[in-house]
Amino acid sequence: MGSGATAQVGEPRVRPAEPGDASDVARLLALLGYPCERDEAFERIAVIAQDRRQHLLLAEVDGQACGLIALYTLYSLAHGAELARITALVVAPEHCRRGIGRLLLREVELLSRRHRVHRIEVASNARREGAHAFYRGCGYADGSLRFVKMLGD
């Protein structure tokens, strides 16, 4: 290759996370601001794998995990139908702006349609203006304001 050439990067693919992905899941969650150890990530993957209403997908490029998305489906009394909530979405900084976030969203949208879900919700911290713009650009509209109360100590 010449000095001005760039290395070819493989096509991203999305697949369900497995227990062996615990280190990658821990690393990606830390990038999102939710650090955990590999063993904690392993337990989280196991919990999700046992729950038919939850899904955890990893994006990979050339066999390396570069993003994840978690989805939870539930019945909404208010809507009288199943809905889905994205509970985590992160793409490693070195892979941003390559369509991986959009690919992850498309995958959970397809998964949701297969489960007869007609509405997907996602919450995003008020400070994450870039994420807000990303979601809007992917067809998500501003929704309800969310309130949080921490319980416990």
Q: Which structural traits does this protein have?
A:
153 residues; alpha+beta; Aminopeptidase; five-stranded mixed beta sheet; 4 helices; 31% helix; disordered N terminus
Structure, explained:
- Residues 12-153 form the N-acetyltransferase domain.
- This is GNAT family N-acetyltransferase.
- The chain has one domain (13-137): Gcn5-related N-acetyltransferase (GNAT) (Aminopeptidase), CATH 3.40.630.30.
- The chain has helices at 22-32, 38-50, 100-114, 129-137, and strands spanning 13-16, 54-61, 64-76, 81-91, 120-122.
- The termini are far apart.
- The protein is globular and about 40 Å long.
- The model is unreliable at 1-7 (pLDDT under 50).
- With 153 residues, the chain is an alpha+beta fold.
- α1 (22-32) crosses α2 (38-50).
- β3 and β4 (81-91) form a beta hairpin.
- The protein contains four helices and five strands, in the order βααβββαβα.
- It has a five-stranded mixed beta sheet with strand order 1-2-3-4-5, sandwiched between helices.
Walk me through the topology:
Layout: E1 13-16, H1 22-32, H2 38-50, E2 54-61, E3 64-76, E4 81-91, H3 100-114, E5 120-122, H4 129-137
Parallel strand pairs: 4-5
Antiparallel strand pairs: 1-2, 2-3, 3-4
Helix pairs in contact: 1-2
| Helix percent band | 25-40%
Largest β-sheet summary: 5 strands, mixed
Question: Which CATH first-tier class would you pick?
Answer: Alpha Beta
Question: What number of structural domains do the residues give?
Answer: 1
Strand order of the largest sheet: 1-2-3-4-5
Which percent band covers the strand fraction? Answer: 25-35%
Enzyme class: transferase
Organism: Cognatiluteimonas sedimenti
Keywords: Acyltransferase, Transferase
Pfam families: Acetyltransf_1 (PF00583)
